[in-house]
Amino acid sequence: MDIGNTIRKYRKELGFTQEEMATRLGVTTPAVNKWENGNTLPDISLLAPIARLLRITTDELLAYKDELTDDEISFFVKDLSMKIYGNAPFEDMFNLAKEKVEQYPNCENLKWKVAITLNSALIMKSILNEDKYCDTIALWYSQLINAKDPKIRKTAAESLFHLKMSKKEYEKAHEYLKYFSDENPDKKLFTANILAKTGKDTEAYRTYESLMFEQLSRLRMIVDALHVFCLEKNDMKLAKRTSELNCNLAKCFDLGPYQENAFKLQLATHEKDVDATAKIMKKLIDNTDTILDYAKSDFFSHVETGNVSDEFYENFKAKLIKRFVEDECFDYMHDNDYWKSLA
Description:
single chain, about 0% strand
């Protein structure tokens, strides 16, 4: 809202006529009329008296705001996006957005959403001389790298990383990884990407494979948690599917026979299926030496597992058998010959 509209708005709210306002300020009525119609501006010496008369601050009179509301930002960005993907020249829309950001330099949310919108357009559309736009967008992101909102900080760091990677400025791209949380799996993935681009093949393989193994393990834990939940709710259809899924994940990623069968046991135990339980127990006991078979897979050939002794496998097998024999959840197996052989 410009100063003329602001004067009109607050004058009417207070019930003043233009003539009354002119009299109180010691100016002519036509002068007030010209202010409100945007034909002229009040003399600078009148700004404070006008603000006092209208019971507002001079910042409000000048329509100055440090921030925009979320609704105002959403409306502006939506309109900007529609015009960019319409027939409006990109340069005109870029300048419009730049002017808005300069008008509200401390509004991080505006700067963030404008940067995302313009950057997306540069990726999606063929824009001439895009470097000159990228430099400004990169500047905005660099200003947001320490924003209050963690979501904005994350987007800024990721965007700067990708901008530097696209320009093959790998050392600069690596600098932005320090803004990523160590718990963020993207940090490890982006590190691997840099290693791959800079000729550090062994380190890249090791990092990719380690990350894949971590995410695979996490996925299997999630599927197992869902499986247990399904058993508790007696949703047997999904319980069987989640059991199969975990087995198939183990098979797809060469985790070995032990891991392929491990998650079948919960379902058999829940159903108290004696024959199925005995078969699974035997497969697990017979394949304890395959528990670390992932290290033999091409997928994880660079992941270091260290030396594992035969004693480790023997101890593992002994503990497994002890569990099968002593755990009360297997009480239904007491009449099974294979279970008796374990006892």
